[in-house]
Write a structure and sequence with these properties.
74 residues, mainly alpha, 2 helices, rod-shaped
Length: 74
């Protein structure tokens, strides 16, 4: 009986250690995932900013066209 109890306690201890290790690894994965999401989000924001600037530049370049009144010639 004493040997069975020792084996059970060792297995329980190993199981608890594995659970702590798994929780630690999940924490690392969460941090890496959050970092990746932050990087991707930053890239998307940068791309959106570039698109916004291009649209603004195009509208400024075409502004002179908006003020011209076209007269039909006969």
């Amino acid at each position: 009986m004493d040997k069975l109890l020792k084996i059970t306690l060792v297995l329980l201890l190993v199981s608890v250690c594995l659970h702590f290790y798994t929780i630690q690894q999940m924490g690392k994965m969460k941090m890496e995932f959050e970092s990746y999401i932050s990087m991707v989000t930053s890239g998307i924001e940068s791309n959106l900013y570039d698109v916004q600037n291009r649209i603004y530049e195009w509208s400024e370049q075409d502004r002179w066209i908006q003020h011209i009144e076209f007269i039909e010639t006969q």
